[in-house]
Amino acid sequence: MNDPDPTTPPADQELSDLGGLGDDTGRDPQERAGDAADSHNVRELVDVPSIEVISRAAVMLMSSAAEKLGLGEDDPDTAPSRDLDEARRIITALAGLVTASSEYLGLHAGPIRDGLQSLQRAFREASVEPDPPGQGPGEKYTGPVR
User: DSSP letter at 47?
Assistant: First the structure.
């Protein structure tokens, strides 16, 4: 008789009973115990208002784009994390999110839009050959950035 795979939960076990969605193999018991303690401080996604979900997604995209532009380094031009192709994709995704959700963002719309425009300008400055106006990252959603 074959023993069940220890990494596969029983079919009748709920995902919420698993204590997380990741694979815990290779992690020490103390780390897993810390996860269980932290789970008391984590809100269920269903309880998080949409404005907060959208705002957090925007902030994550802004942070990622800034890193890809090398803005976290003393000299962005020589930053090892600089990747303008990746930055373009992230800024475009951010522009789509901001444009699609601006009516729901209320007071948050202005600061998020300002952050997006700052990233678009930083991308233009970082580019060896800047895109024509209206063709930079996300500008098909936001219009040309000056």
Answer: G
